[in-house]
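Table S4 entry, EthD family reductase.
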Amino acid sequence: MYNLVLLAARPPDWTHERFIAWWRGDHAELTYRLPGLRAWRHTEIDQALEPRSEGWDGLSVLSFDSPEDLKAALASQEWADAVAQVGDMKGRRIAVMGHEAEMFTTEAGTA
């Protein structure tokens, strides 16, 4: 998989709850439409491990088969619509992309 990873903080005038509800609701409706999207995982951040990690509300991992598929999604009207919906919300984000490597997993029913 090739992933787009987004770490985001809400706009200053929004509550954490409002931001997560928007991200998983109205914004998700546009995200689901991205061409080539294979998987999407979202984490609501409820605490930071240490002070230098504070200030973030959520993390999204959008998965595609290849860098080319992600590039096509970023060039699509669906991506443009999602960006337009965000508009000038004035939240913060970090957006990075790269190849995924599964490092560990357990099978259901084993411990």
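The longest strand covers residues 2-9.
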